[in-house]
Amino acid sequence: MAELLEIKNLSVSFDTPQGELQAVRDVSFSLHAGEVLALVGESGCGKSVLCKSIMKLLHGNARITGGSILVDGVDITNYRQRDMERLRGRLFSMVFQDPMATLNPTISIGEQIAEAVRVHHPKMEREAVYQRVMELMKLVGITEPEQRYRQYPYHFSGGMRQRSVMAIALASNPKILLADEPTTSLDVTIQAQILDLLRDIQQKLGTATIFVSHDLGVVARIADRVAVMYAGKIVEIGTAEEIFYDPRHPYTWALMRSLPAFAREGEELYTIPGMPPTMIDLPPGDAFASRNEYALAIDYEEMPPMFQISDTHYAATWLLDERAPKITPPMGGDFHG
Amino acid sequence: MDDLILEVQHLTHQFRLTKNLVIKAVDDLSFQIRRGEIFGLVGESGSGKSTVARCIMNIYQPSSGRIFYNGINVCDPKEFRKHKKILQTSRQLIFQDSASSLNGRMQVADIIGEPMEIHHIKPPRGSLRAEAEFQLHSVGLDKSYLNKYPTELSGGMRQRVAIARALSMEPELLVADEPIASLDVSIQAQIINLFKHLQAEHDFSILFIAHDLSVVKYLCDRVGVMYRGKLVEVAQTKELFSSPKHPYTKTLLSAIPVPDPRRERTRVLQEFDPALFEWDGKLVEISPDHLVWKGGNQ
Q1: In this predicted structure, what is the pLDDT of residue B283?
Q2: Dihedral sign (CA A295, A296, A302, A303)
Q3: Which domains does chain A have, with CATH numbers?
Q4: Which end of chain A has fewer CB atoms at under 10 Å, N or C?
């Protein structure tokens, strides 16, 4: 499969008064054309920063301290804003969590979608733009687009707003869609509809998608591959089946065990002890070690490398080293009944 | 018969938006909460869950209907004034957004002590500060947090402080309006455990409002499902999740995401057509403790 996006050893830091905050540390992954890759992790683990650093939407105090971002084989790591403006929208678009903050409350929905179309096709005729907007609104499942065109964001429900945002993001057929928790603020029923829509569009247009979420249930529905992030690093990556039925990293186990869906009756929910580390002055070794009940002595001293489990499945934990003691994972296939 | 702590009878609340536009947020709603149980209220946003909570807590004066708390009709201003102190101390409310429900200019110790100061309650453990420390401890925070401001705490910790503040009044009824909606999965688990522990320890009743059904399934004893201001189904949690009867409940249950890719990809969403909902009807008891909305006048 063609690799659309390739991230190699990417590190992103913020300069803060307290010191250097390492938000993304040595992250490598690739995204194939037409697949959905989910990024999962707690808040503050660097999921959103990773997305924004690909789009170069980070603030001035952030800088890429190492690694490279390759799109279609072209290195865009050192692209300036002007170069990026040509890529944004065409090559990649982003959908954010809160649609109300993304949309302009004083412009009608149709005009906002039309604006996105016009930016990428400045010479398009008025009528053609209108037709394209209608097409986009139908694509994302907005019914009665002619009437909806003139309505404002406050006329729309949360789900409909998120659909409009997606229409804007898809206005110029991006190859990569970055969706940053697009369903977090929505109801369960609406959330399921939006997920199905994303999946649908993705299959129709072949858009590769990076889907950021902290909800493993949502991820199970949409993702082809899953990357689990902790303290700015990808600790485990694999196909959805591998991550959900055969997880190898203790952090992945912990995340899954804390879901009420896996709790057995009468039993207390599992909670991860301790707090996520602050990303300034990280201790040597595995950042998860102090919260990990399976931590080995070496975890406190040396960072585990990525161990390969299969062609697609990698995990960064010393438990996979051949010298490590054998333990039975608390999570795995049997738990799904 | 049952020992009821709260009885809601034909509660209706309307919002008048303009002269001619009235929205019925809660429409002829009746349910009971028994002493010592966790009652879950679920439904999509806009279905009136929070309005119910606010009517129960006397934040809104309902348009009609009655709410009995321990036999006191809280909607009657006269009765409310007569029992004001007991009503305002033994019922406590926890909000979704802990960042805005805690005063950012007060330290944790003062936040937890404030209700006691307002109600002129002598702290049972000597000083307000000692009391705050005790309550903090019971929600799993140590005394180093006493002098912190809410902005210095993470979302989960702030929610713990909000719970500690509610606990300081030794409530009999806790109304929690989406207390975990804005938290991370692992923090959610901590707060759910905390609710379960505290409930077992203090034996108070909880009205737990949520839209995450897997949490409700885990935590609650009984569940009520709301749809556009109406209660369409009330049952024991196990019964509701194993044999939902109302089509809307089925839709809601079919939308719960399951962390299992193979099952999740084949799962089909059940559509609920609002046109099919019969507005005239009533809750009918189809089996003991299981009420379902039945349309028409049969």
Answers
A1: 85
A2: negative
A3: 1-91+175-337 (3.40.50.300), 106-173 (no CATH)
A4: C
